[in-house]
# Entry
Amino acid sequence: MGLFLTQNGDKRDKASDGDNDDIDALSELVMAAGILGEDRVGDPEQEHRLSAILGHYDADMRIHLTQRIVSDESLKPIKINRFCERHGLTGAEKKVVVSLCLGRSMAQHAKDHFISPNTARTHLQRVREKTGISRQANIVSTVLA
# Structure
């Protein structure tokens, strides 16, 4: 019988048998969120390690971890990186995408990054060309989908 860590750090005896389903579901969420990386999904050794790690937490902690994994805020950087890599965006173009996802205007973006508004608009235009998305709102919704 193993010990589990609770959310507040207390230890308690092994949880009920239904927790294995919770562990499996949380493992799938972790993999779906890209935390393992696509090259490790389906790797039995990695999945075994993940199950062993998650097995140390009680159900309340696994729920808390699941909420953090699926939170839009925690996934936003992963989604932005994947979008930018998929479309071959440069560093400057990625900064534009980040600013758009944060709800900033191009004028604010230019000021934040010490570039002219024309340069910011040029970077945005390149993002539009590379992605085939013409509206700023559609860029954001596509990135965060």
